[in-house]
Write a structure and sequence with these properties.
By secondary structure, this protein is mainly α. The protein is built from three helices and no strands. The chain has one domain. It is 83% helix and 0% strand.
């Protein structure tokens, strides 16, 4: 089945989110806060997008 752009964006955001959580767990380093902490609303939007991408990936996995 052909993947569309939403699939690729969701996958990228889930990977980025997973790597960020890995850094938080290993080094107590939250890259989203480091990069976007000066603009809290942008950091919140990024967290929400990563969460929505994870929900989409669950849907995508179950759909198959």
């Amino acid at each position: 089945m052909e993947k569309n752009i939403l699939d690729w964006v969701a996958l990228a955001l889930v990977i980025i989110g997973g790597l960020n959580w890995g850094l938080v767990g290993l080094l107590s380093l939250d890259l989203v806060q480091v990069l976007f902490g000066w603009m809290p609303i942008l950091a919140t939007i990024i967290y929400v997008l990563v969460g929505l991408s994870a929900v989409y990936m669950v849907y995508f996995a179950v759909k198959k």
